[in-house]
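--- STAGE predict ---
source: upstream dedup step, 1 unique chain passed
mode: sequence only
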Amino acid sequence: MKKNYNYTRRKLYLPEYGRHIQEMIDSLSLIEDRAERNRQARAVIAVMGNLFPLLRDTADYTHKLWDHMFIMSDFQLDVDSPYPQPSRQELTSAPRRMPYTQSRIAHKHYGKYVGQMLRKLADVRNPQVVSRTVDCLARYMRTKSYEYNQEHPNNEVIIKDIKSMSGGAVRIDETALNNLRSDYKQHFSARPQKGGQQRQQRSQRNRGPQHGQQHGPHGNRNFQKNGASRRNSQK
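--- STAGE serialize ---
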């Protein structure tokens, strides 16, 4: 018996459809009647759509199926498609190379946009807007520095970095930045309310005698002594 292994077969163009769909598309080119070939091609498209029913709600789903059929036929199938037939050059052309910036980031843990925003502040004439923006950026810089170094930097370090990143073009209120406090990842210390311990102690004192009379050991001991003395007197 002749064995037919996959490594001896032809390589599939789209392996996700399987070898049976590939053989069905190969058999379409052997049909001489064009009308019959178009009818069989639509039947193959329906079978291909049944293999991935969850993708039917996507846009241009039928268009993709026809393109896949032309790809699997190595662009040799001659049928009447409702969509323009793709060419080999369109699918094999290399994409346009994306230009990437090669600028050096002086403070990588802050990111490049912090420096750009600080340099843009040099053109702002409103001192209040500059002060509020610098304050927000300083808090953000403390946050990113904590994520990078796992410790909060001193305000002197933040002021020094702001001056270097802005090129000295931004006026900084060092007094306000020295009083800057970061609330990022601060542990919450729960403080007891005033009078809470006094009310708790007062309620315990009020419940103490009643609790001792009903369930306390002294109450049971007194009841036993009274009962024992009562029985002794009867004797």
